[in-house]
Structure formats: structure tokens, C-alpha cells
Amino acid sequence: MKFHIVGVDAGQKVVVLDLHAATAAIALDTAAKEGITVLSLRSRALSPAALRREPAFPLTLFTVELMALLDAGLNLVEALQTLSEKELHAERQAVLGGVLSAIYRGEPFSQAVSRFPQHFPPLYVATLRASERTGNVREALSRYIAYQEEIDRVRKKVITASIYPAILIIVGSLVLAFLMFYVLPRFSRVYEGFSNDLPFFSQLLLGAGRAVLDYGWLIGLLLATTAAFGAYGLTRAAIRARFIEWLWHVPAIGERMKVYQLARMYRTVGMLLRAGIPVVSALDMVRDLLDAHLRVQLAHARILIGEGQSMSAAFSATGLATPVALRMMAVGERSGDMGQMMERIACFHDDEMARFVDWFTRAFEPVLMAVLGIAIGLIVVLMYMPIFELAGSIQ
Length: 395
Fold this sequence. Notes:
Blueprint: E1 2-8, E2 14-20, H1 24-33, E3 37-44, H2 59-71, H3 76-86, H4 90-104, H5 109-113, H6 122-131, H7 137-190, H8 200-235, H9 237-248, H10 251-274, H11 279-285, H12 292-306, H13 311-317, H14 323-335, H15 338-394
Antiparallel strand pairs: 1-2, 1-3
Helix pairs in contact: 2-3, 2-7, 3-4, 6-7, 7-8, 7-10, 7-15, 8-15, 10-11, 10-15, 11-12, 12-13, 13-14, 14-15
């Protein structure tokens, strides 16, 4: 990111400079090292050359490497220094340098990484902060890695299951477009002389071919405009929110979306509880994992827990507990290990989601192939039907 700084140097002269830095804190530190007292700082739009997307900070890889160095006997500062020295990417090195600088100033590790919220999410910071009470940072890192691996496992399962249907849809759409925009207009020219003798559906199809032939540029413009508006809509948070809200009202899809979000919430709450974070604080941290209407229910559950109700009773009253989750929460409350029980609930629902995705893809793929095959076959048959009738009349 580019920052525009106005300040005063050691000679009491006003200076204006532009700095490239990952965050405003790093830009301020850089200016201070140069002896500049900052009067104002604001971010500026980067030039087109600088708008190339930089790779994101690899948080999971960083955590794995840091834990490995701690296991090797290095202390936290030595491990961070090692990671900073081996890093070749400028922005990532700046992030690690900023974390080290904060630690040198006496800040705890959790506070140091919290200076970079775009790279270290609140969940990561909270896990580290809880571990600093016991001094076992490695355990916190291990817990976060296990959490991230489970989240990634479910996400990869969904993505993998979506690849083959997506390929079928793309290939089928290309074939249909080839027939409608290339083959069909040429057939319409062939049948121009005896269009009144064609079957009704063939007339409709070949009429569409003539429309493509005469107004192809307009149809192409409309399709391109529709695609552009669709792509623009996907970039707008309000439009995405409305689309997701519509999906919630589809019975089968909405139910699965709710189970998926609840499972992710259960897993996150379980990890936070095992890290020693109070349940009310944990619920505050996980609210962003849920959609807007579920956040309202979560806020109500938080109030009920603050009034002294159990988690199972509060979640049941607000509709945030599935029947299985409700029973397992009751067991966790009796055993006193709610953190581990919440993670088990999440595992149960993740496995349930994986089975549903597997079943859905197995059922959806043949249905999709049949629909595409019927559509392509119907177009071909309607194009050749006049030829078949002509051959029959000759016989």
C-alpha cells in the first residue's frame, strides 16, 4: 500500500514523501527511523503497475514453520528472526519485521501480530493471547493449525466435488452456443425457400437462427452486457448478500447452509474455549462467521448465557443448536469439557456435510449430463427433421 506522509524532519523543515508499506504502522515506523515527525498520513491509490496483486501472507505456512523452529529449541524471537531472514518477499518480510520490532519494544506476541489485522485474523490473535497466560505458545499454534486443516478439508471437499459439474456445464454451454450461433444460422439459409412447409418447432428453431444471423451483433452485445452486470453484481457486497438471502429460503439449500455455518461456529467456539477464553468472549469473536440473521440469534444467545443460562439452553432457545448438537452440548456441560465437545459436534456435522456433498454430486452429474444431452439432441433433431420428412416423401 502507498502512504502519503507530511511531516517535519530533524532540521524543522516540512517534508512530503510517499512510502510503500504493508500497514500505516509500518509507514509510521519507517518515517520515525528517518527522523521525521509525522503530521499527517493518508493512503493513496497505487499506480496501475503497482496494482498487480501481491501474494497473501501465508499464515498457515508461517505457523507451521514457527512451530517447527520452536520445537527445534529456538525461542520466539530467534524463530521470528530466522523466518524474517529467509523471507524473500518484501511485504512479508516487512510484516515479520514489524512483529519483531513490536516484540523488541516489549509488546507480547499477540499484541505484536494484532498490528497487522489484514494478515492475522482476530481468531489467531485471541488464541495467542490465551496461550500467553500459560506460556505455551506452541500449543496454541498447534491448535490453530488443526483448526485450519479441518476448515480447509471441508472447503476442499466442496470445491473438488464442484469441479466435474462445472466442467460439464462449461463444455455443454459451449456446444450449445456453437450450435445456436454457428450451425443454426447456416441451416436457416438452406431452408429459406420452403419455410412454410417445415414442422412448427423446426420453424421456431430456424427462426431463432435467422434472428442470430440478422441481429447477431445485438444479441452478442446483450449477452456481454448481461455477463458484465453479473460479474459486477458479484463484486458488490449488497447484491451478494441478497443472493445469499434468497438461497437461504430454498428449503434444501438453506438448511445445508445453516448446518455448514453452525459447524464452523461450533469448531471455532470449541477451539477458543479450549484455549481458555470465556464463552461470552468466544461468542463475540465468532459472530462474523455467521450470516446477518444468525448473528441476531447469536447475540440473543449471548445475552441468555450472560444471564446464567447454559449454552445448550441458550442455543436451543435461539435456534442455533441442531438436535445432535443439543444432546452433545448437554453431555459436555455435565463432563465440564465443553471445548472438546463443541469440536466433536463440528466434526459430526462436517462429516454429515461431506456425505451430503458426495451424494448430491453423484445424483447431480448424471442428471446434468442427461439435460445437456437432451438439449443438444433436440436441437440437432429439429434441424434435420425437414430432411427426414423430405426423404420420406421421396420414398
